[in-house]
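Researcher: Let's try something more involved. This one mixes different molecule types, so please make sure each is placed in the same coordinate frame as the others.
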Amino acid sequence: MLQLDQIYKVFYEGTPDEKIALNQLQLQMNPGDFVTVIGSNGAGKSTLMNIISGNIFPDYGTVKINGSDMSSMPEHKRARKIGRVFQNPLAGTAPTMTIEENLALAYNRTKPRSLQFGVTKKRRDFFREQLEILHLGLEDRLQAKVGLLSGGERQALSLLMATFTKPDILLLDEHTAALDPARADLITKLTKEIVAKFQLTTLMVTHNMQQALDLGNCLIMMDKGQIIFQANETEKPDLTVEKLLAEFQRIRGEALLSDRSLLA
Amino acid sequence: MFTALFGSVEVGVIYAIMALGVYLSFRILDFPDLTVDGSFVTGGATAAVLIISGVNPFLATAGALVAGFLAGCVTGILHTKGKINALLSGILMMIALYSINLRIMDKPNVPLLAEETVITKISAWWQGLGFDSMMQSLLTSIGLSEYIPSTWGIFTVMFVLAFAIKKAVDLFLKTEIGLSLRAVGDNDGMVRSFSANTDWLKVLGLGIANALVAFSGALVAQYNGFSDVGMGIGMIIIGLASVIIGEAVIGNATIVRATLAVLIGAVLYRLIVTLALRAEFLETGDMKLITAVIVIFALVVPKLIEKQKAGARKKKRAAQLGSAGTNGGDQVAAARSDL
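Model: All components are placed in one shared frame. Result:
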């Protein structure tokens, strides 16, 4: 489904700030895989997301989706195959537009936009049906401006907007990190349900190790632009937070301090 | 007095079309587009030159629309493909258009007085309807003979035209393309992640905005009976004034309401200017200054009022708490000691 081959990306090349963000990264995802990505700050997780979505381009290497090479395709074209939820709840929706207008925008992700009306009666019924999945009562507030929703509601809406058109790849970029624990749990639960319902191939970045263990069938740990540890379907169920930390220490010879503080 | 006010409403409706263009770029795309000062003249110049060379005035006005669209597209391309700052790309285009407009007209001023224009055609057609004489006898019969404008034709046709354009803009902004255009001004990273080409949407939006501006410029040139290379100076501020005054009076909760606000704002702006110019000490040359003052007022006064209201609320609350006795103070002290 998704295939990353020898991805190499360096920032500020040739200056004292030079930083290799991704170093010869290899990743292969099969249809239906739900891979969670953990790693400390600066490990290259966000760069990885941006390279897959086409927000930035690798210096070397290829990105393939469904076998076709997308390496030089701009973001808006790649978006036909990719759904994405951002960390910031404000980033995934248009605040001055209504809930149904936002859904209409998302609805057009897979097809070219024309001069027909974005919200029709038929589509409105469809949107209402989809919003019911969230159990937040948003289906009764179709005409409400998204700017009036709370952060949790907006993030739930973003998640729905990114998924209800069944993307080939779903990218979740620390999408619960900016929410309070209760809202984060809600979004985590919705993520689980929606990914299962639409059978989406998903790549999720998180700072929360417990979340990384709870969700998905595979787990990868990144450090300094490389994947340093990988757990597949058979290995992942046995993992615990302690095992992950010990694994990191064994590989790198240093403690994963920055993430330990996040476990509380 | 009445004739002057009627005249300003008439002009206001024509300028409202320009203001709708400014609304599109300024509010919908969130793009402060200074191209307007140049593209307004481009519209007037294109129409004037075409009319003089014998083209049907309606076709000539449509030509102005196309010229404005192209000018707006160039600004959009400078901004998106050339990665030039929004304000600067507008300014660059405005300056470039000054020379281009001179080239189009071949001289700083093209008179249209002896030509057949959209305005003269509308007047002639209207005269044939006999509506004016009817209004005249009606108004005279109720003793309002001194308030009779020479013709209702221009006002009526321009009003219908401006309203039709408003309606078209409303509908367009509800289409799939229109929705993505609105989202570009709102959150362009998000629209890109939903497979919209934000660069071309911006170019298209600026094109449409400047097409409306140039269309309005063509009508103004024909209304005034000349096209002048300086007629666009400060146009962006007039457009902004219309948008801001309209929003202050009507509000902008929905698109339908916001575009209506722009129409009414444009007429109100003209009325304010006409009334201001009646003051003894002000001259026609002070018009731009008056415009600037109006915009400053429209921007500052609502904030001052809001501040005043918030202050009044605060005082009221303080008074309420104060009258509840000295307990309030004790509680604060207690809370502090808890800490």
